[in-house]
Design a protein that fits this description.
The structure holds 2 protein chains of 2 kinds.
Chain A (H helix, E strand, L loop, with lengths): L1 H39 L3 H14 L4 H13 L3 H14 L4 H21 L1
Helix pairs in contact in A: 1-2, 1-3, 2-3, 3-4, 4-5
Chain B lengths: L1 H30 L3 E10 L10 E11 L5 H16 L3 E2 L7 H9 L43 H4 L9 H10 L4 E25 L5 E25 L5 E6 L2 E6 L6 H17 L5 E10 L1
Parallel strand pairs in B: 2-3, 2-4
Antiparallel strand pairs in B: 1-8, 4-5, 5-6, 5-7
Helix pairs in contact in B: 2-6
The chains are: A mainly alpha, B alpha/beta.
């Protein structure tokens, strides 16, 4: 009897967690979308705030890290940009668009690294 | 009888195709695109802290290579005009100094009194330091090649930039500006070999194709090797230096004036030069993802 109730509770727990997880994903996605729309209007700080939020909500969201990296790059925060790109690639290593962004970023980053030598 | 039936069939097919296309369009619209290209401008901090300086003196360059271009005059002129528009420093207008002669003078024990003498805004010739102690004879005793044709010839002249006493004196004369100097080698170059070029072809159906083709070519052009040296006019010490190499080659039949090649090559380097003194914004595009 006890085992049955535990199993039922576990099932309920899993069932309630699934929508919560789905909600989090949806929420993160809406933050990313909002970030994109404000970035397109030139409001990069707001966009960064949204993308940071998205990565907090869903730390497995590669696109959010990619966008965040672009935001940091635009603000000249190259260290943070590199970390965000690397995280995006770690989460989605086969994404050619993230890789292309990262390659372009590296060109600039290498130039500044040369300066610091 | 067959005619109307065929017509009916083709109308039905067209309707089906239109429906499919509408469905695809509706699906695409519903999904939306998942990526957006966006222009960005990455700010890059200057390589040098130029805050202690209000003025910059582009003094002169040890120049060599081809005689078709006076690389010293042209480089000074170009850098001054770029600095006037793209940096916050005030550019000192002084005569361009033939640094080769200064270096030779120093190597012969002349104490580095530059023969031309830079004169700001047409001011009277400056007085010599007059101490005669030879403290700024950085290159003394070193034999310098009479003509500079390549890298090897220019190397011995570089001792001039380590002569802090000389540069300090120049700095004092111009109220401690940031001094820009260095070497410029502008050489003609010819080469031959296989080069890969895209060739446009049309097949029997008239479709355009671009194919990479390897062809043997004789080419000629120029190599530009500048070294920019930034000297603190207060101390005479080198703050920073950087070297570049750019090359341009043309078809051997093409006759491009040396001066236009020089400007084309300098155009590629000027952003790097400016990024040493002032913050730059590098434009590019990235892809935002949903």
């Amino acid at each position: 009897m006890k085992a049955t109730s535990i199993a039922i509770l576990a099932c309920l727990g899993v069932l309630s967690a699934v929508p919560a997880f789905a909600d989090a994903k949806k929420d993160a996605k809406s933050q990313v979308e909002f970030g994109i729309s404000v970035a397109q209007r030139g409001l990069w700080r707001e966009a960064i705030y949204r993308w940071e939020k998205a990565t907090e909500i869903d730390p497995t969201y590669a696109a959010a890290y990619n966008d965040l990296a672009i935001g940091y790059e635009h603000e000249g925060q190259l260290d943070k940009a590199r970390k965000a790109y690397e995280k995006a690639l770690e989460l989605d290593p086969n994404n050619s668009q993230v890789r292309q962004n990262y390659e372009l970023f590296k060109e600039i980053n290498d130039r500044t690294a040369q300066k610091e030598k | 009888m067959i005619g109307p039936l065929r017509k009916k069939n083709s109308a039905a097919r067209r309707l089906a195709l239109a429906c499919a296309a509408a469905l695809v369009a509706a699906f695409t619209a519903a999904c939306g695109t998942d990526y957006f290209e966006i222009p960005i401008e990455t700010p890059i901090q200057p390589k040098l802290d130029v805050s202690p300086f209000q003025r910059v003196l582009v003094y002169g360059f040890v120049a060599g290579g081809t005689d078709d271009v006076d690389a010293n005059q042209e480089t000074v002129r170009l850098l001054r005009s770029q600095l006037r528009t793209k940096s916050s420093l005030r550019v000192i207008d002084a005569d361009v100094v033939p640094l080769i002669e200064v270096a030779r003078d120093q190597s012969q024990g002349g104490g580095g009194e530059d023969p031309a003498g830079p004169r700001e805004g047409g001011a009277p010739p400056r007085a010599s330091n007059g101490n005669g102690n030879g403290s700024d004879r950085g290159a003394q005793g070193v034999s310098l090649p009479a003509t500079i044709k390549d890298e090897k010839d220019i190397e011995p002249y570089e001792r001039l930039f380590a002569n802090t006493a000389y540069w300090k004196r120049i700095g004092e004369e111009f109220q401690n500006p940031l001094i820009v100097t260095g070497t410029v080698l502008f050489m003609s170059r010819s080469t031959s070999g296989f080069v890969q070029r895209d060739q446009e072809t049309f097949d029997s159906l008239g479709r355009r194709r671009v194919m990479p083709m390897r062809t043997y070519m004789e080419r000629k052009g120029f190599v530009l090797r500048p070294k920019f040296v930034f000297i603190d006019g207060r101390t005479g010490a080198t703050m920073y230096s950087e070297s570049y190499r750019e090359e341009i080659l043309y078809n051997a039949q093409q006759n491009t004036p040396a001066l236009s090649s020089y400007f084309e090559l300098m155009d590629r380097l000027v952003p790097n030069f400016l990024s040493a003194l002032s913050s730059q914004k590098i434009r590019g595009t990235r892809v935002l993802l949903k």
